[in-house]
Give the backbone structure.
Amino acid sequence: MNAILNNKDEMIMSLVHYFVTEENYTPINVQGAKNEIWLENLEGPYKIVRINSKYIHNNEQYDMDKFKMRFVIRQIKRKTLSFKMNVLNICLDLGNAVKLEDNDKLIKTVDIKSIEDLKKDEKLTDIFPKITTNAFKEPDDLDKIITVTEDINRKTEKENYKYEDVFKPKKIIITKVLILLCIVLYMVSLFISDNFTESLLILGANHRELVLHGEVWRLITCAFLHGNLLHLLVNMYSLWIVGSQVENYMGKTKFLIIYFLSALLGSFFSLVFLGNNVSIGASGAIFGLLGSLLYFGYHYRLYLSNALTSQIIPIIVVNLVLGFIISGVDNACHIGGLIGGYLATMMVGLKYKTSNSERINGALVYIMLLGFLIYVNFKLV
């Protein structure tokens, strides 16, 4: 029986199959790209693998090809917020006149025309030790096409399941409960005393002297109190918009942990920078949820397209700037909450994304920062 695949087609299919199923690379849709396949794995030894089947006759054509490739790489770097991106450029049809130079630190180009060429490249096989065995273990006939197609489809289905599991709409409950609690406490604060500040202190406003004398619960309760109706409405609207997103992506338990850890760190920042002033409001915890979205958006940036750079980051920056401009805003609490939310999200982890070492690092940094703030506050007494 004659082979269905020629040598180049077999190389393309085998390499794509290997990188997708064995090394967790994902195909990238590159506009205008012909006879080339781009694969991406931001946690891989090479963030980008490009398989190029175009015939390149001489060094001039090769230099032009690298110029076009660098343009695409810059696009991917902007999309993924990557400052440095190393690329494996696998060329399957380089002419003999092309002289490869090994002085490009970011783009490694290899001339591969057969499995024997792969075996000769010791640097490549050191990084991908299974490439010569797992990539070419099937014969070049109809069975190979079916097997490779099924494996890639299975891998795609698995990735689609993960995406649907994280992003599918879920019932929002905790955010609504938090909003209701803030509204109820605001109503109570209106009637508990003729002096509104005294009402807030009774209900648990943040105050350094009281906290350092043992009333540590104020570090959390202050996040449910508000100074006036406008303050309440602005924060509750923000909590609904941001909180519903974080609760949907993270789940209810993780959302609660992030919310309270953000509020706690924001309150400690207030103690350091505001002295004995009274601090109240859910904005520290809300900034923590923004910090959580920042962490989430970075790790899922391939799914969120440009939402991280066009929405999440600008919202954080604008709100922090407004906090410095408008008087009476507890921006220290905002910054502390933002940091706390980011670290708390790292600590609880993102489904399918965060490793155990990242969780441990997030917990350690959060604890050390909290310990430092406690020490500073007691030193300021």
Summary: The chain has 16 helices and five strands.
